[in-house]
Amino acid sequence: MGYHAAVARFKRQLLELTLEMHDGNRTRTAKALGLERTPDHVAIPYKGHWFYILETDHVTKATFSLLLEIVRLELTGKSGQARCSPCP
Questions:
Q1: Segment (H or E) for 57
Q2: Alpha helix (H) ranges present in the chain?
Q3: Which of 87, 40, 37 lies closest to 59, judged by CA?
Q4: In sequence order, which residues have a C-beta less than 8 Å from that of residue 73 and are 6 or more positions away?
Q5: CA angle 15, 9, 5 (to 5 degrees)
Q6: Is the dihedral of CA 42, 4, 11, 35 positive or negative?
Q7: Tens-place pLDDT, residues 20-64
Q8: 33 and 43 belong to one structural domain
Q9: Which residues form the domain of 1?
Q10: Separation of alpha carbons 72 and 58, rounded Å
Q11: Per the structure, how many domains does the chain have?
Q12: Are residues 30 and 43 in the same domain?
């Protein structure tokens, strides 16, 4: 295992253990590790990794809302408000 892989593994283990110590609370975990916790608009686990859209990322939030509405139309044939409301 190379240096960068070892460091990444250590960071991941530290984060997972600290998250477990704080009962899954990401805000307390970030504070305990001295990290800045940014508010997430969407957080999705996929194949062992987490993918985020930050609350401040207005373009991505609007795109995500549009995709949700397209999927809703395709599945139901009815329009409606997407769960992630478009940004101002």
A1: none
A2: 3-21, 26-33, 58-76
A3: 87
A4: 79
A5: 145
A6: negative
A7: 999 988 888 888 988 776 667 777 788 888 888 888 888 988 998
A8: no
A9: 1-37
A10: 21
A11: 2
A12: no
Angle at 49 between CA 46 and CA 55, to 5 degrees: 85
Model confidence at 73: pLDDT above 90: no
**Cα(20)–Cα(72) distance, integer angstroms:** 35
Q: At what angle do helices 26-33 and 3-21 cross, to 10 degrees?
A: 120
Closest of 60, 75, 73, 74 to residue 84, by C-alpha: 60
CB 72 within 8 A of CB 79: yes
The verdict on 43 and 86 lying in the same domain is yes
**12 is written with which tokens?**
């991941």
What's the chain's Rg over C-alpha atoms? 17
CB 52 within 8 A of CB 40: yes
